[in-house]
Design brief:
single chain; 79 residues; mainly alpha; 2 helices
Length: 79
């Protein structure tokens, strides 16, 4: 791989295992439809949280309950 993909497992016993693909082995960044470097994933996460923070309170509460077990990481409440 050119850069480390966000979907690759971080544990030493599971090195090279993809968390997105069903067969779990990385086909390589050139052909993988899910490949995204870690830095791009973090940038996208930051942008997503910035957008969530601009929503009305009721929508934020709904999203927090549905997807984040009631937490709001975009407000500093860690996931």
């Amino acid at each position: 791989m050119n850069e480390k993909c966000f979907a690759m497992k971080k544990t030493p016993t599971r090195e090279g295992v993809c968390s997105c693909l069903e067969k779990r082995t990385c086909p390589g960044y050139m052909i993988c439809p899910f490949y995204k470097p870690v830095w791009v994933q973090e940038r996208d996460r930051r942008r997503k949280f910035e957008r969530l923070a601009t929503l009305p309170e009721a929508q934020q509460l709904y999203i927090a309950e549905k997807y984040y077990q009631g937490r709001m990481p975009w407000r500093g409440d860690e996931v």
